[in-house]
Amino acid sequence: MADTATKTKENSLLGLKELSAGDIVSILDRAAYWEASFPKQTDTLHGKFIANMFFENSTRTRFSFEMAQKRLGAQVMNFAAAASSVQKGESVYDTVRTLESTGVDAGVIRLKPIGLLAEIAQKIKMPLINAGDGNNEHPTQALLDLYTMRKHFGEIRGLTVSIIGDINHSRVARSNLWALTKLGAKVQFCAPETMKAPDLAGLAPYVSIDEAIRADVVMMLRVQLERHEQGLMTTAEEYRANYGLTVERMHAMAKHAIIMHPAPINRDVEIDDELVEHEKSKIFEQMSNGVPIRMAVVERALS
Questions:
Q1: CATH classification for the domain delimited by 1-137+288-302, as one of 3.40.1380.10, 3.40.50.720, 3.20.20.70, 3.40.50.1370
Q2: How confident is residue 39, by pLDDT bands cut at 50, 70 and 90?
Q3: Which residues make up each annotated binding site for carbamoyl phosphate?
């Protein structure tokens, strides 16, 4: 039987690469329970304290976690790096360790540096939930993506999912790849040469945009405009023409297929403006599904 410290580590969610298919399904099932009951607020986590530690900007993920935590009855503390001792030179580890020392029961953390989260998780006792680390993983985004697909199709197994865009810098692409393949879906990528991920070579095929849009799920990724200076692409117009989901391309999609996007969205770059809320689009449903998914993940962390 696992001791208390080991059990606490097991309740962390650092990524989906190491999570079993059974654990993933368990989280999806629990999210379905929370969505079905969807109480305004419960006392499930009454007396528990959770710190949301965002060392990188976020809107959807941070508010989705906070909504989930408050629905479960937890006490929530929000931390923003711009207004903290990090600005005085304090390390991320020291900040996390300080919050743990004050009695926080669990932490939700978003970081830019790759690998730092796993290192910190080894040094502290409270469970941590990855809210996005570098281009490594974004597990709760992938879980809500899977949850959205399962709600629409009833089953993940057998689906073909095209992930289109900046694969190399996408933690969403990686977490979805690990989880979808474990649950029996076929994943394929579509990206310009400058946006392909060398570390994922051989794990999923790259296909043309014409083939990508014939999948069951067409998942567009945000074009990371902040990286343009590094030469990832020439212009937004050229990217839209070669890799964007245009209205014309949407008409070539299968009737049953759906459009997904983790947001934020660059309208008329990776996806045409009129498609964002098209009947095929699940983009805002994805955001709604983030709350029950994160309720399941937070509850699991403190169980």
A1: 3.40.50.1370
A2: confident
A3: 60-61, 110, 138, 141, 263-264
